[in-house]
Amino acid sequence: MEEYTADAFVNREEPVPVIAVSGSDSPSSDPKGKRERLKESLGGSKDKLKEKLQDAGSGSKDYGYSLQDRLFAKLLQQVIPEEEVEELDLAPDVRSSKYINRPGFSLPLMTNNFRRFNARIGVVFVFQNRLERLLTWRKPTHTLSLLAVCTFVCLDPYLLSVIPVAAALLFVMVPAYLARHPPPPVSSIHTTSYSMNGPPLAPPRTIKPAAEMSKDFFRNMRDLQNCMDDFSTIHDAVLRIVTPPTNFSNEPLSSTIFLFLFVATCLLFITSHLLPWRLVCLLVCWTAIALGHPSIQQLLLSNHQKHLAPHERTAQSWLDAWISHDIVLDAPPETREVEIFELQRRNGGQNGEWESWMFSPGPYDPLSPQRISGDRPKGTRFFEDVAPPRGWEWGDKKWVLDLASREWVEDRMVQGVEVEIEGERWVGDLAGDKEAYEMKPIGKGKSKDLDEGGGDSKMGEWRRRRWVRMVRRKVVSDIGSIGS
User: Fold this and answer.
1) Which segments cross the bilayer (predicted)?
2) Are 53 and 72 in contact (CB under 8 A)?
3) Residues of the chain with pLDDT > 90: what percent?
4) Using CA atoms, how far apart are residues 91 and 395, in angstroms rounded to an integer?
5) Which of 30, 175, 250, 344 has a CA-to-CA distance to 104 between 20 and 30 Å?
6) Mean pLDDT, the chain, as a whole number?
């Protein structure tokens, strides 16, 4: 009976065990990791952080901070380097205060929240301890009862709706009633049963936060410390196992896993309605709970060392041979063709000389938006300053003049120009104003050629020609990491 009283939620002697995994580094011995975690915790900008620390240190706002909090805030204000905070501002982060409407980092506020949290977290640790005792077969009758419940739910999934109602009835209402109708003292009566009729004999019990500096408060801190270590250990172990085969650092292996997952997805999409899901859930449930038994764990460990370990190298060799034979990853990097337009402008009217103006990504034709609005062309003055697109690199050594000027003129439906089909392949403007081009457009395929009877026509102010060059995808050495 005492297991369901309110005292069981706060008074406990058994600590939450710390999970130990071989080969993992302790986070406490990683000073660089501490520095990185400190940088991640400071989500605000430098000015906001300094302002909050100054407010906490000076006590200008009535937050109820103690002298110790103000002194520690002053110390932290001197310890945090400015360049560390500036680096945080430069890195785009969805957890930044720009995207989250929550209070910024404040040491006194964090201290107060930790105290409140630690005083109320005891219920969670009690539930964790009970769940661990249940799954590790500390009391076999309790674990077998759990297996019976799981069996009924797996065979009849509609019973799943009964579990939360029954849990509220058995673990909330019944203990609350027994707390108000306690049994008589053992020494005063010599019977194991008693009547619960009549008025309540005891006040209702509630779960109260543990008082600071009390035994339960420090027990919560002990269990919280162990849970943080458990999470860090499990996190590192999962990343150590899952990340290498799935992040394509070994592309043949990751491609094989991708292929198997794709085939499994297609098969399940077609045959999932044919599988006996109730039996599958029952087997999974019984297997998961049975693996927690100490005898089964020792049996599996001994069988693994005797029977499975000698064949692991053979299986790994077969898998590597299959991957190397059937998974082919020899595709060349992606390539694209980029273009740049060399613009020249005539000085001194029709008899003037052409002057190199700039290299622009657009042809700056008579009916282009920039030309109509009167804006200057955008680009660079020198050929050497033309850079490849972001994420790409040059695939060949030099630019090549596009000899098919008519094709790109027709593809872009450029109007009001004359095309050289021989020589330097210049595409020049026709002499006239923009209104003439708009009222009498020269349609697709109707541009005038200088070498087809148009050599005596008057040229406009601008001319251009197209240069092309191949680019390929650039190999990125560091793409960063995903924040946890």
Assistant:
1) 146-178, 253-270, 277-296
2) no
3) 37
4) 31
5) 30
6) 77
Q: Which two tokens stand for residue 134?
A: 């249940």
Q: Determine the Cα–Cα distance for residues 341 and 370; give it in Å rounded to an integer.
A: 15
* 8 within 8 A of 2, measured Cβ to Cβ: yes
Question: Could you tell me which residues are beta bridge partners of residue 448?
Answer: 418
Is the pLDDT higher at 59 or at 357?
Answer: 357
| pLDDT of 22 over the 60 cut | no
Say if strands 448-449 and 417-419 run parallel, antiparallel, or are unpaired: parallel
Distance (Å, whole) CA 220 – CA 169: 28
Reference 442, options 427, 430, 456; nearest CA is 430
Tell me the residue length of the chain: 484
Distance CA 196, CA 201 (A): 10
Coil, strand or helix: which one is 97?
Answer: coil
Instruction: For residue 151, report the phi and psi dihedrals to the nearest 5 degrees.
Output: -65, -45
CB 471 within 8 A of CB 392: yes
How far, in Å, CA of 208 to CA of 228, rounded? 24
pLDDT at 66: 67
| Token pair listed for 192 | 């194991």
pLDDT over 60 (residue 33): no
Buried b (16+ CB within 10 A) or exposed e, 402-425: beebbebbbeeebbbbbbbeeeeb
d(CA 62, CA 74): 17
DSSP 148-201: HHHHHHHH-GGGGGHHHHHHHIIIIIHHHHHHHSPPPPGGG---S-----SS--
For the record, the structure tokens of 200 come out as 């309540």
pLDDT tens digits along 364-395? 988 888 888 988 899 999 888 999 999 899 99
CA dist., res. 451 & res. 422, Å (int): 8
151 neighbors 279 (Cβ within 8 angstroms): no
| pLDDT tens, residue by residue, 127-163 | 999 999 999 999 999 999 999 999 999 999 999 999 9
